[in-house]
C-alpha cells in the first residue's frame, strides 16, 4: 500500500499510525508510479492522532521531532519513506536509534539530515541580498532542500532592524522578517523596485571579486567544492565568468524556472504575517 500525505509533520504522523504494521508500506509526499495491482490512499492530517503519536515518540527520543522536521524538508524524492523507516525503527526498539549506524534506515536518515543542515549552513554565506527602494532587502534563492525558514534566525540576528525577504523561487514561498515578526508565506512571484544605488554596489562588489582573483592560479575543482555551481545564478559577482566551460551569464527567466525575478514593481504580492 502506498500512503500519500501532504508533506506536513501532522500528516506524516497520521500516516505512520496507519502504515506501521504494513510490511510493504510506502509513504510519500510526492508523486509515485503505481505498480499493477498496487493500492494507494491519501492520508489527511488528523491533529489529535498526530499529537498522540508525537507525544509517544518524544518519550522514546526527546529530539526525534527535530530529525523529522529536517527529513521532511529534504528535497529527496523518497524523504517520506526514509523518515518512515527511521521512525518505525524507533518504535520497534523503543529507544533513540540515531547512533545505530549499522542500520540502513539510520544511515539513510542521517545522510538526508546532513544534506539539509549542510545546505542551510552554506546558504548563510551564499545568499546575496539586494536593497529595495523601501529600504527592505530581497534575496532570491533556489535550494535543493526546503531551508528558507531555517535561515531566518541567522539573518534576523545579523539584520535585526532591516526587513528582508528570502524568496525560494523553486517552491514559490518566502521567509520574511518585517522588523518585528518573522513568518513564512506563499510567494509565486516577487516584483521589486531596487534602490537607486543598488546597481553601483553590485558593480563595486564585482570589481572587488575580480581584483582578488588570480587568473593564472585557477583551481576550478576546489572553487566548485567551496561554492557549488547550483548557487551561482543568484550571485552578482558572477563566478561563472571565471570558468571557461560555463556561460558567463545566468540563464534568462524564460530559460530557467529558477531564474531571479526582474527588478520592477513592488512587494505587492507579499501577504500579511500569520498570527498565532
What does it look like?
The protein is of the alpha/beta class and 276 residues long. The protein has two domains: 2-120, no CATH class; 127-276, no CATH class. The protein has eight helices and eight strands; from the N terminus they run βαββααααββαβββαα. It has helices at residues 9-19, 47-60, 64-73, 79-93, 104-126, 152-158, 198-212, 220-226; strands at residues 2-4, 26-28, 40-42, 130-131, 137-141, 164-168, 173-177, 182-186. The strands form two sheets. The protein has a five-stranded mixed beta sheet, with no helix packed on it. The chain has a three-stranded parallel beta sheet with strand order 2-1-3. It is elongated. It starts with a strand and ends in a 50-residue tail after the last helix. Mean pLDDT is 86; it is low at 247-257 and 259-276.
Output the radius of gyration. 22 Å
Main β-sheet description: 5 strands, mixed
How are strands sequenced across the largest beta sheet?
A: 4-5-6-7-8
Number of contiguous helices: 8
Following the backbone from N to C, one meets helices and strands in this order, namely EHEEHHHHEEHEEEHH
Whole-number total of structural domains? 2
The rounded distance between the terminal residues' Cα atoms is 36 Å
Strand content: 5-15%
What average pLDDT do the residues reach? 86
Provide the structure class.
alpha/beta
- Helicity, as a percent range: 25-40%
How does the overall form come out from the CA principal axes? elongated
User: Which stretches of 5+ consecutive residues score pLDDT under 50?
Assistant: 247-257, 259-276
Number of strands: 8
